[in-house]
Write a structure and sequence with these properties.
This protein has about 260 residues and is an alpha/beta fold. The chain has nine helices and 14 strands.
Amino acid sequence: MHIIPLPAFRDNYIWLMHDGRHAAVVDPGDAAPVEEALQRLGLALSAIFITHHHADHIGGLARLLSAWQVPVHGPAAEAITGVSHPVAEGDEIHLVHPAARFRVLGVPAHTAGHAAYLSMDIEPGVVFCGDTLFSAGCGRLFEGTPAQLGAALARLAALPAETRVCAAHEYTLSNLAFARAAEPDNPARDRHAEHCQALRARGEPTLPSTIGLEREINPFLRCDRPGILSAVQAHSGVRPADAQACLAALRAWKDQF
């Protein structure tokens, strides 16, 4: 199974999975990059996955469905035109072509019904997490609460370390800049920042990441670390009482960074 990020708009990624003949795509906000990739690689579209309802994730649905009558899996808790297979927490999706099984993870926070799709069939594991988890960051709280965000991030952080993180935006360098403010002393983060700067200089994506890497560099997964607690205190004037309070303060700080 091949997994390819298709750049769209300014910084979106539409994820394409294929076996050399059949393909599935995740969050096709724009049909054109998908159509180009299918034609270039000689692939037939067989399924579409949607993580949440924002326009930059669903904008290409109608055009793709006009050419390909394929199932569209999307969160049942959100009203998305074109979704034919509503899914919710714990559901399983079995693709025949390309062959893979996915488990639906309910991760509300960025939006009220946000879903992620986890497959351990595609070795060494992959999670399509939309705008919930980014490399070195996380999504804004448009419709959810800090408690929901904490629960969603904890679920993702508990996945096996080698699981690939296929997030929907190329936000890594800006997230790493905030991570330096939120946790000044993190050598692993600094090494990764140098690596990502070199990738972007060559026009290459910084994704996918891995869960193991994110545990080391992502401040939103490290809210119990003394360095982050101290940085939040220095920024806000109040030391967070616990990791949950730290996450809420960190997200509010990032919103203004």
